[in-house]
Specification:
The complex is a heterodimer of chains A (438) and B (146). With 438 residues, chain A is of the alpha/beta class. Chain A folds into 2 domains: 13-333, ANL, N-terminal domain (Rossmann fold, 3-Layer(aba) Sandwich); 337-434, GMP Synthetase, Chain A, domain 3. In chain A, 29% of the residues lie in helices and 23% in strands. In chain A, strands 3, 4, 5, 6, 7, 8, 9, 10, 11, 12, 13 and 14 form a 12-stranded mixed beta sheet that branches. Chain A has a 4-stranded mixed beta sheet with strand order 19-18-17-20, covered by helices on one side. Chain A has a two-stranded antiparallel ribbon with strand order 1-2. In chain A, helix 7 (188-200) packs parallel to helix 8 (222-232) and helix 9 crosses helix 10 (390-408). Chain B has helices spanning 16-26, 52-61, 82-92, 120-129, 137-144, and strands spanning 2-11, 31-38, 42-49, 66-77, 97-104, 110-117, 133-134. In chain B, strands 1, 2, 3, 4, 5, 6 and 7 form a 7-stranded antiparallel beta sheet that branches. Chain B is an alpha+beta fold and 146 residues long. Chain B starts with a strand and ends with a helix. Chain B is built from 5 helices and 7 strands. The chains are: A alpha/beta (438), B alpha+beta (146). Chain A binds chain B through residues 381-383, 386-391, 393, 415-421, and chain B through 5, 7, 9-11, 13, 16, 37, 39, 41-42, 44, 46, 60, 63-67, 69, 98-99, 116.
Chain lengths: 438, 146
Amino acid sequence: MKKFVVENRIWDKEESLPRAELAALQGAKLKETVARVQNVPLYKEAFSKSGIAPEKINSLDDLKRLPFTTKADLRGHYPLGMLAVDRSEVARYHASSGTTGKPTMVAYTQNDLKTWANLCARFLTGGGLLPEHSVQIAFGYGLFTGGFGLHYGVERVGASVIPAAAGNTPKQIMLMMDMQVDALVCTPSYALSISEFILQSDISRSALNLKHAHFGGEPWTEDMRVRIEDEMGILCFNNYGLSEVIGPGVSGECAVRDGMHISEDAFIVECINPETLEPVAPGEEGELVFTSLCKEAMPIIRYRTRDIASLNLEPCACGRTTARMSRVTGRSDDMLIIKGVNVYPSQVEQALLRVEGTAPHYLIEVDRPDRKDVATVKVEMTEKSFSSSMKELQELKDKIDRAIQGITGLRMNVELVSPNSLERFIGKAQRVVDRRRG
Amino acid sequence: MKLKQLSVFLENKPGRLRELCALLAENGVNIITLSLADTEQFGILRLIVKDYDKAKALLEEKGFVAKLSDVIAVEVKDEPGGLSEILKIEEASGISVEYMYAFTIKSGENAVLLFCFDEMDKAVTALQSAGLNVLESVELYQRAEG
């Protein structure tokens, strides 16, 4: 099968500045951001507590003196405590995909939306999007940043959008065929479902005009890329972002596909050891930390993403000079992404606590047997929860099932197991077995 | 009029049932009868034993979850229509069967049916007033062990 060939294109000149020039630009923008965050009580307090005078922050070297921001800080200032502008200046709100209680709200001014669309246009261009292409967006539209972020990015390139939104696979494929769609935007796991459906329906590859796809929203593997590319005869590109930083558009792959170029004129990236908080050497894995340089509504300083990846500062064959990040290989906390939903094991624990008689011992197993994530929660029986009636045990399972779904938003299989059959841990318990491989 | 039944949670793992039976055998606990209800993923073993407290303690010590509950033992002639008659009586009283199992007593031609009804006391009254023999536990143990 003849694969689409991506021509090497660069959207903005900021993507290929000499490193020294980039550093000077970052230093100047950092100064502006530091001034802007003085409107945010959390930062104002942090600066005065640590005795940092905002006017003394002049260059990139001063960054390490600034405080980190964590997810807990953002949660603690729900909904709009992190806003650096007046509410009247906000043009749009989004929220993180977390399902624990309250989401994390994020806000954008008109300028922020322009910046964001442009950042998405960069990685889309890097991955072969041309103004004459039509792009089907099969991401959820709504509070999630993926749908709208990519939507405006595609428009910014000058291409056309088919806002199919997530779900209804047969209709997605119908649109792709009838509209002769050139590019697909979705999560990699949804792409696997689409591909599988195409294979099962005996749809001829020639009925599709699909050339390239841009995946984000969850970590995936090189094996998955090979599989989707082989099955669908397309090129797949990885992109990365998180709502707290801006959404998609933080980084994305170019035609070389050797790491995702970070838009460093818009974000300063650091890679740190999550224990010592010291920087790790280029090429070494660590936790990514981002500082925004262009955001007005919700500027963020040294945001600890908890995403584990490595950085490559070598110039890329594509001509861009920006740092490249590897795929995200893990988390420095225990968050899981199952079917695109962020889940913490503690949420499952919380759900079990709501069901009377269940033990606090549980194990979450995540597999991808048929290309779809399947999560199973093993729960130990106790004398209290056990019954001689099958009906009652079934009811117990249903109760656990509903409690988990209520808290995480996800359906998980519930498996009742013998008491003491799950491993006991001294210290930090291992609650998750993740067997997903591509 | 009620009988103690020992229910045990059994995970569907090879050897689990054998392990349980061996444990009871080593400790001289005779199983009068049993029934195994199973799903794809787990099972409930229901046992009638004379020394149910001892059996429960033994099982718990070995990490099984066991629970005592009440069942009703009804003696009927081991011939066609025996069960149907009982069900007719209960149905007329608006009582439903949660589960049941049966066994025959060695010495006689009679069968013993074990029931868990949704309304146990009402079930006993209905059966007795229809003239059926609801067995006392002591009597059952004696007859079962012949």
